[in-house]
Amino acid sequence: MNPFIDSFGRQHTYLRVSVTDACNMRCTYCDPSRTGRFANDRILSMEEILRIVRLFVTRHGITKMRVTGGEPMVRKDILALFQGIAELKASYPLSVGMTTNGTLLSDHLPSLRSLGLDALNISIDSLDRDRFRSITGMDALPQVLEAFRLAKGLEVPTVKANVVIMRGVNDHEIPAFVRYAAEHSLAVRFIEYMPFAQNTWDTGRFLDYRSMKRIAEAEGALIPMAYQPHSVSKDYRIAGTNGMVSFISSVSEHFCGGCNRLRLTADGRLRTCLFALPSMETDLRTLLRSGDGSNEAVADAVRNALRNKWEKHPDPEILAVTQSNVMRAIGG
Ligand code: SF4
Q1: How far is the CA of 180 from the centre of ligand 1 (A)?
Q2: Do the beta carbons of residue 118 and residue 82 sit within 8 Å?
Q3: Number of helices and strands in the chain (H, E)
Q4: Global confidence as pTM
Q5: DSSP 40-97
Q6: Contact criterion met (CB below 8 Å) for 299 and 289
Q7: Can you tell me which atom of ligand 1 is nearest the CA of 258?
């Protein structure tokens, strides 16, 4: 095995794959104006994605992957990806998760589960139907709640709720989410609002995790859980329940020291950081489609990218003016 290690000694064992920049929602913290989409001929085929996944898993020590979008379930051939991953899981240690908005999940979840889906993060930014619609642009709260029920019913090993908290928008719902987590023995992840292109991020709507935690603690004692290596979250059990809340402090308190993540965009750009600048991206699509798309050439390109990976992301004020990608083109 020839692991992917950056110049700070961080081994990269986790690949996040965005399979599309398309989405059926238009969340205010993502890309409400729905700016331009990738041209179809730029989108990697499932075979091209699987080629990269196979290479990274079989030769370079990737043991965890997450399928993201846009909304991954809008891709009609999504099951073909999971079929290929299932074949890999038969011979290699590999856990696979998916981040989805849950609106297109129910019909396919039994198949995804039988193909080895291990973890599911479903976005749900409000428990109030009208506010849900105003944040996402879609009246879909019932379908999303149904997706949680189905995932639990199908015993998906790990099911979590992703909640992006925006001050003055849904921060007053933190107590309701803590109660929901306690009542449904669910893990709710409160995510700091992050600056990306087109999402009009500003400090006025930003709420740091410490403030979120103070609000959550008004609902019940939070018992710290052991830190998991490379984890992006601070996890707590809600006292006396099987519910859990977590805080993802990407902006106010970075966790870059333990970063083990690589990202592949739907148009084949390798990103060494969630907030990577265009100069930090590597075009694997052209490499794959050019004459010299050998496994060695791809691996060399990744190693070269990791040589240039920064130690930690810049401060939020800089991020707010340097991000050129919309969130749905990165996959979070
Ligand atoms: S911000 Fe970038 S470097 Fe930091 S943990 Fe996230 S992906 Fe890694």
Answers
A1: 30
A2: no
A3: 10, 14
A4: 0.95
A5: GGGSPPHHHHHHHHHHHHHHS---EEEEESS-GGG-TTHHHHHHHHHHHHTTS--EEE
A6: no
A7: 5
Dist. CA 265–CA 94, nearest whole Å: 20
What three-state secondary structure class fits 294?
coil
User: If pLDDT is split at 50, 70 and 90, which confidence band does 319 have?
Assistant: confident
The first and second tokens of residue 122, run together, are 């479903």
Q: Please give the pLDDT value at position 278.
A: 87
* Domains of the chain: residue spans and CATH: 4-330 (3.20.20.70)
| Cα–Cα distance for residue pair 183/178, rounded to 1 Å | 9
Centroid of ligand 1 to alpha carbon of 332 (angstroms): 11
The pLDDT of 104-123, averaged and rounded, is 97
Give the pLDDT of residue 285: 96
| Cα 2 from Cα 216, distance rounded (Å) | 43
- Over residues 269-285, the mean pLDDT reads 94
The CB of 124 under 6 Å from ligand 1? The reply is no
d(CA 123, CA 142): 13
Task: Report the nearest atom of ligand 1 relative to the CA of 250.
Answer: 1
